[in-house]
Design a protein that fits this description.
Length: 358
């Protein structure tokens, strides 16, 4: 068995269906197995997915046990040489999985690999490649200094934006949204730490794989990740991030935990102030938070996912909302939600439909 794919789901059955549709295409001819671990969803995910993907191994939890524990349930059952942790709100191209496995095959030092992720508007997601989350890097991220100076090695060390997103690199930290792991590396470094309920578990595992002597790689193989970390800007996310980083430093750098705690507490105060000021201005603003000038719908029945992803990544400027239609399920999936498919609108050409020139 070459590849085991593990997807943890919680109440996102439509995104999950599209993800599995793309994964099924991408595993054609590849010795693989697919696990879906459902964390007690209430949206009918199990019935919806089982009817369309009978070969998927579906694990239903009776409670939400968190991201780490749910992934570990399937990883323990997996037989693949490589294990891919994949978010349900992702879309992969038809050749993505073969390409990343081939890269690992020719880089025996690689213990883990991440890819170039874009959001539903085609924007690069900076969490695709990250540096070590030192207290200073975490402080710069949470206070916004990293955003002000994204290409700076001094202030931008968390998302390492000074590294070209279209070139392969060795990096420190991967995103759990797409995390390809060598089984041998997992056997040495261990599974996800279940003390992390949400966020931070990918940082911890990446760090332990590096400590075990394996390389961690970023490969500019493009995928869609709809609800990326960059979309979460509220104070609640800052608090969750702080809690995760506190667990990480308490575990690996107990003597630096005091310094980290006070730096991040200051960052929370500054981020909270900025958030409150931002909300005050948004109440009086008349323009929406997300503005797009165009809308394009791709028919997944006729257009390969790889072509959809490439178009989203390469189209400039980033002022288009992209939707992917699935006529057989009567749904349209986009970054701003799911809609019933009732036919293309006048301002939303369906690329790849029978009446489209594309």
């Amino acid at each position: 068995m070459k590849l085991s794919i593990v997807i943890v789901n919680y109440n996102v059955k439509y995104y999950l269906w599209q993800c599995l549709d793309s994964v099924t295409r991408a595993t054609h001819g590849l010795a693989s197995e697919i696990f879906v671990v459902d964390n007690c969803s209430s949206d009918g995910s199990a019935e919806y997915i089982r009817s369309g993907f009978p070969d998927v191994q579906y694990i239903e939890n009776r409670e939400n046990v968190g991201f780490s524990k749910a992934n570990n349930q399937a990883v323990r059952m997996a037989c693949g040489e490589y294990v891919l942790l994949l978010n349900p709100d992702t879309v992969v191209g038809e050749d993505t999985l073969a390409n990343v496995c081939a890269f690992m095959d020719v880089h025996p030092d690689a213990g883990a690999l991440g890819v170039k992720m874009i959001d539903g508007y085609g924007n690069f997601l900076p969490e695709s490649k990250r540096g070590f989350p030192s207290p200073w890097n975490a402080f710069c991220k949470m206070t916004g200094l990293a955003g002000l100076f994204p290409r700076s090695k001094t202030f931008g060390g968390y998302h390492v934006r000074y590294l070209d997103e279209n070139e392969p690199h060795t990096i420190d930290i991967l995103s759990g949204a797409f995390m390809l792991l060598r089984r041998q590396a997992l056997d040495v470094a261990g599974l996800l730490d279940e003390d992390f309920f949400m966020y931070g578990e990918d940082i911890d595992l990446s760090y332990r794989i590096g400590l075990a002597g394996f390389g961690i790689y970023y490969l500019p193989e493009r995928i869609i990740h709809y609800k990326g970390e960059s979309t979460r800007k509220d104070l609640r996310y800052v608090k969750i991030f702080y809690d995760a980083m506190h667990i990480f430093f308490r575990k690996h750098y107990p003597h630096s935990c005091f310094l980290f705690k006070w730096m991040i507490r200051l960052a929370i105060v500054l981020a909270g102030t900025a958030s409150a000021i931002g909300k005050m201005f948004r109440r009086t603003a008349s323009t929406p938070g997300r503005v797009y000038r165009k809308e394009m719908i791709f028919s997944a029945e006729n257009v390969p996912y790889s072509q959809i992803i490439r178009t989203m990544d390469e189209t400039k400027p980033k002022d288009t909302l992209y939707r992917i239609s699935h006529p057989q399920k009567q749904i349209i999936v986009a970054a701003n939600g799911i809609v019933d498919m009732t036919g293309p609108g006048d301002d939303a050409p369906v690329v790849g439909s029978g009446n489209s020139p594309a």
